[in-house]
Amino acid sequence: MSEDSKTRRSPVRVLENALDRSLETQWKRAFVSVDGHRRRSPNATPDMLAQRIVDEFVRDVSVIGAAGGALAAIPGPGTVVKLIGGTVVETGALLERATYMIMGVAEAYGLGLDEIEVRRYAVLQVLGAWVGASQGAAGLAGTLGAGLGKKATEAIPMTAIHAFNKAMGKQVLFKWASRTGAIRLGSALPFGIGAGIGGTSNYILGKSLGRVAISQCSPTEPELTDNGTCADE
Hints:
This is EcsC protein family protein. There is one protein chain. By secondary structure, this protein is mainly α. The protein has one domain (10-217). It has helices at 3-9, 11-40, 46-72, 79-108, 116-131, 138-144, 150-155, 158-185, 193-217. The longest helix is centred in the N-terminal third of the chain and has 30 residues, at 11-40.
C-alpha cells in the first residue's frame, strides 16, 4: 500500500474528511432545525432551544451506540478487523452528529457561523474543551478566549481563526478518536450486554459533550470540571 493510500485511510484523515463534509452538509440542517424550534415555541429562550438540540443529539447517539454494540457482538470471520473498522466508522458518525449538535447550539445562541472556517473553529473549540486538547494551544486560547459567545466570535480576526484551526485540527480529532474509540471498544461484549453498554456509554458521552457545547456557546460560561460537568452541579 502506498504512503498516499495509508494517509487517506488513517483514522484522523477519515475524521478530517467527515468534519469537512459535516461543516458543509450539517450547517443548513442545524439552522433549519433551530428555526423550526423557534417557530413552534416562539417564547423559548436560547437556553431552552440549545437544550432541545442537545437532547436530540443524546437520543440519536444513544441509538447509534446500542446498534454498534449489538453488531460488534455478532461473531464471524474477521471479527477483530470488523470491530476496529466499525469503530472508526462509528467514530466518524459520532463526529458528524456532534458537529451538527454544536452548530445547532451555536445557532440557538445567535452565533454567526456563516463562514465555514468559523464553524470549524466553533466545533474544534467545543471538541477540544471536551477532550482536553485546548491546553495544547495556550497562546492561541489566550488570544481567542476561553469560550465562544456572540461578541467573542464577532471580535476574533479571521487570521486567528485560521491559525487555531490549522494548529489544533489534527490534535483535537486524534484525541476525539482516542476517547470515543475507547468508549466504543467497551461495547464489544456478548450480544445484549454490548448493546446496553454501547447505548449507555454514548448517552454519557452525549450528555457531557452537550454540557460543554452549551457552556462554550452561551453568553455566561459556567466553569467546568475535568470530566465536562458544570462546577455548580
